[in-house]
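Interim report to the steering committee. The following record documents the input for ABC transporter permease (110 residues).
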Amino acid sequence: FVLASRALGESNVKIAFKHVLPNISGIIIVQIMMTVPSAIMYESVLSAINLGVKPPTASLGSLITDAQENLQYYPYQVLLPALALVFISLAFILLGDGLRDAFDPKSNNE
């Protein structure tokens, strides 16, 4: 398609927006959805070791770290941020997987 468009005299910008961008947009969206859980985990780990956001700002990592002091008496204070971290990551992974299946040109026949 690109060679045919070039033979018809279309500009490179028009070819990029008409043929290339629609074919890579699904890949880019899926890649972003799969990268978000990693970024959330990195931020949580950095906050847990006091290299992330500062204490007035809430973070799942800092909430888990702060709750470890009272783990014996209030285990739900650790459980809730940990479960939130797991469910947020799982939601983005499942969304990315669903979008990958939706954008897959081989599965459009089904």
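The chain has a mean pLDDT of 81. The committee is asked to note this result when reviewing the revised timeline.
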